[in-house]
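We give its fold:
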Amino acid sequence: MKPTLTLTPTLARLAAALALAGAAGAALAQAFPKPAGYLCCNMRSDGYWISDSNYLESGKFTIPLGTPIKVTDYARWRAVVEIDGQSQTLGNDYSRDIAMPDFVRRYVVRDNPAERLASYPADIRNAIETSRVMVGMNREQVLMALGYPISSENPHLDARVWKYWLWTTQPFDVHFGADGLVSHVRTHPDTRRRVVKE
């Protein structure tokens, strides 16, 4: 004879509250908007996961800005997206002070940024296409090249310094002048060669 599990009134209330919270969370996720549009910026993927950290890790490849993308579902701190007919996950790993619908709107944009990219000078176009920054870029161009800086380290996009990481041990800081343009990038020389177009 199998033993039966008897819940105390306190445990029963807790179990009911957790079930209710789970159902409410699922219902809320279903209510989130599921936009379709274009990828805002160059983002790195392993074919399954796209993190807001945008680390350059072994086995990852770059999905270029302007790639068609649509949201198909949500889960905890992530959105399921379809890119080129393939399902991937856009993970909110380090920007969790941003609500998921707002987080998604950063990356899934209505207007194709590739059209704006085509209007830039050749050197800036090349820098963006190779996920690098250069002196003289504006904030929009840096975002297109590198993606958004994670909000846990960059709560305000109007700040004079944006902190990025090429990898966990390779930070780099993009500095903006009073004119809103990149004045310099501070980092280790090895990282600099990979993220800065001189």
Notes: The chain is about 30% helix and 30% strand.
